[in-house]
Structures are given as C-alpha cells and as structure tokens.
Amino acid sequence: MRIYVDGIDAKPGVKTRKGVQAADSNAAYASGYLLFVRERTLMAQPFDASRIETTGGAVPIAEQVDYSFSNGLGHFSASRNGTLVFASGAAGGNNKQLTWYDRNGKSAGAVGVPADMSSARISPDGSTVATDPGDPAGGKDIWLFDLARGTPTKFTFGPEVIAWPVWSGDGSRIAFGTAGEGARRVKASNGIGAAEALDKDPRQVASTTGRETGATSLRSCYLPNPAATSG
C-alpha cells in the first residue's frame, strides 16, 4: 500500500493527489510527522504539509502495535497537538478461530488453528475450507483445509496480498482477489496449472460467487487500493 495526500477543495477534473510513502496501514499526521505502521511497528517520518513531501527518514516509535492484516488497519491515532494513542499486543491479536456449531448453537470442534483471516468458504461438496490467513510480514495467501484429514495445503504463493476465495458451483475452480494488481483471478481447485486473470481494475477487489451454475459468477466490491493507481 501507499500513503496518498489530496486536497479536499480541488476543482473537478483537476488531479491533486500525490503519492508520499509506502506503508502497511492507514496514516495520520500530527506536529510535522507522518505516522504509519510498517511490519507492526509504528513509524514517524518528518513531513512538510505545505510541500506535500517527506523531509527525513522514518524512525520507529512503538513496537508490536495492534494491526489487522485483513484490512491493513493499524490501531493508532494522533491529535493535532501531538498526543498519540495506540493499542499494543502480541502478534495474532486479530486472530479468528474457525469452529463448527450444531443446529442448537453448541460448539462441535475447531477447524485448523487461529489466524487473521478475511474470509472462509466451504467447498460445494463440504470436504474443504478455503481461507486466507495473514502472515507476520503482512502477506496473505489462500490455503485449503482438508476437513477429513485435518491438514492445510497452501494454494497460492503471493507475492501480493491474495484473499477472498470463492468456489465455483461445481468446486473445480477457486476465484480470488489480489490487492497488488487489482486483478480477479481463478485457478483450478486441485492446484494444477497457473492462475488466470479474469479482469483487471485499479482497485482492490473482493469477490463473491453464485452457486446456481457450475461456472464462476463473480460479483465484486471494491476496497481502497492506492498502490494500484497513480495520478
């Protein structure tokens, strides 16, 4: 991801947005410093707001800042006078545990281990769960969890953030979104062959699918993805 600055009073059709810095999270500005998270460390970098540019290197000011890999949100804020507040905790603070429940709401066992995932989808035949756990470096990939064997298998291999898996109606393919290129891709669920791009869009894509047919039917929502745009 990148941090961008734009004017709220820009005239229609006039592009004023300017890329400033690569980061793993949201950003804040206070007392001449740009604040952002990089690999779970809160960084402060001198920033000239009038010229819209950094004026020095970034330095760490807090480690193990609470961070959600699923949406790139660092849990911190700063006031205009420089007062800073942030949530801290060990890695995995945003982990979720997949758990089976019966019709009476009683827990029937866990699936896999806790992870910071955005979504989980069960295959049409009920044999496999596709998930998108995050890793400590901020990456994401699709993993397939075999429910009968109790084993996970890595399905995609970055390097961009890959998330939001969906199954085709017949279970033969899995579609997913990529944050780096803003592309929706599809790959055979048996893992054979390369992923194919369905289309490309300069926005981060999350896809859902209908199961009324054997074909993948994509419906999409778009999330902020400044790294895939320019100007």
Folded structure, characterized:
There is one protein chain. This protein has 231 residues and is mainly β. The protein folds into 2 domains: 2-86, no CATH class; 96-228, 6 Propeller (Neuraminidase), CATH 2.120.10.30. Helix content is 0%, strand content 50%. The chain has no helices and 23 strands. Strands 3, 4, 5, 6 and 7 form a 5-stranded antiparallel β-sheet that branches. The radius of gyration is 20 Å and the shape is elongated.
Distance separating the two termini: 15 Å
- Number of beta-strand segments: 23
Number of helices: 0
Biggest beta-sheet profile = 5 strands, antiparallel
The proportion of strand residues reads: over 45%
CATH superfamily of the largest domain: TolB, C-terminal domain
The whole-number mean of residue pLDDT values reads 75
CATH-defined topology of the largest domain: Neuraminidase
Counting structural domains, the number is 2
Low-confidence stretches: 201-231
Which structural class is indicated by helix and strand composition?
A: mainly beta
CATH-level-2 architecture of the largest domain: 6 Propeller
